[in-house]
Amino acid sequence: PNIALLLINADPSGEIAFEFPVPSVLGEDLYFQWAVVEDVNSITLTQGLAVHLTAVTTPDQASLGFADTSVGDTSDEQVVVFTNDTHLPITVIDAIVVGDAGVDYSAVLDDESPVVLNPGQSTSATVTFAPFTAGQRNATLEIVQSSLPAQFTPTQVTLSGLAIGPQGSAH
């Protein structure tokens, strides 16, 4: 769709700021151009920007904090629900844990992969903390979905837990 903007006044410093609604066309590329109008007969195109709109899932919580867990033990399970709040289907492929302490966590999608989420539908991932090393252990749960361009960050949930050493003290 074409969107036209008419700028009547600009800030005296020459800076121009504007917002306008963009129709929901997820999965398509949009191209915006803006121009300097020197007079009615002269328009100079100054910049262009291509934007790819992509749907991602929304988690029901931004982070999971796990109870203190002894090295070699496994925490209670925690569940994160991911919802498709868009107008297009989303295909969820996997739930993975990344980061320096990623090996201390495990995540499993609760539905068989791939999971196709139509608008309004949800899936969940179950996460456990089973530390190998004592101390504060932080990682990130990421939801892998198909057709997510590389420049987009997948849906993420921060994971944190304190691993207690064999003698019952953190190291």
Structure characterization notes:
By secondary structure, this protein is mainly β. The protein has strands spanning 29-39, 42-52, 58-59, 63-70, 78-83, 90-98, 105-109, 115-117, 122-129, 135-145, 155-164. It is elongated. The termini are far apart. Residues 1-11, 14-30, 49-53 and 167-171 have low confidence and may be disordered.
Q: Quick recap of the structure?
A:
By secondary structure, this protein is an all-beta fold. Helix content is 0%, strand content 49%.
Key words describing this protein structure:
171 residues, mainly beta, 4-stranded antiparallel β-sheet, disordered N terminus, disordered C terminus
Q: Helices, strands, pairings?
A:
Elements: E1 29-39, E2 42-52, E3 58-59, E4 63-70, E5 78-83, E6 90-98, E7 105-109, E8 115-117, E9 122-129, E10 135-145, E11 155-164
Parallel strand pairs: 4-11
Antiparallel strand pairs: 1-2, 3-5, 5-9, 6-8, 6-10, 7-9, 10-11
Give the CA-CA distance, first to last residue: 59 Å
How many β-strands, per DSSP? 11
The overall pLDDT average reads 76
What profile does the largest beta sheet have?
Answer: 5 strands, mixed
Share of residues in strands: over 45%
Helix run count: 0
Q: Strands of the biggest beta sheet: in what spatial order?
A: 4-11-10-6-8
Structural class: mainly beta
**Which descriptor suits the 3D outline?**
elongated
* SSE sequence, one letter per element: EEEEEEEEEEE
Low-confidence stretches: 1-11, 14-30, 49-53, 167-171
* Overall radius of gyration: 23 Å
Helix amount, in percent?
Answer: under 10%
